[in-house]
Amino acid sequence: MFRRDSRDPLERQLSQLRQQLEQSALEELAPEEELPSAPVSEPAVAAPRTPIRPAPESITRPAVPGPVDRSMSVLAANARWEGTIQTEGSVVIHGHLQGTVRAAHDVTIAEGATVDAEIAAQNVIVHGSVRGRIEARGRLEIHPSSEVVGEVVAPSLVVHEGARLTGKLKMGSGETDQREVTMGGRP
What is the Cα–Cα distance from 85 to 97, expressed in whole angstroms? Predict the structure, then answer.
């Protein structure tokens, strides 16, 4: 005798996919333990799933520029780093760093971050405090209430109102372009 399944093929595939997802979730919870196997009974009709709701607006998310991907490194607000960070991607610094940062793409110093370092990157965006040397191959942007003290080398510079820049500035390719500057000084 043949038994006919009352469900359509799509429903069977969804049921198999649910089983695989449940199994992989169990394996992630206890990958080293042997879990007892129990027979899985499938319901005749798929149970309705509750929709995934977006996070409430009250949850704050860290300010990370652009899309986050595997090539972005992040130094957390409660972290301190002494040494060298070198990446083929981008770096976002929320904490405290002392040393050297070399990035193929962007370096962002978040509000509240303090950096005492030599920074070399395509673009450098400062929202916090930086002491040291900054070499941007593309653009350096210093946002309001941030402070940069040291030597700056960048072909393109944006200093927002309220930002402070003190030190040596080199724009362009020749040594004759160097100027001593103090910008945005506060009384």
Answer: 10
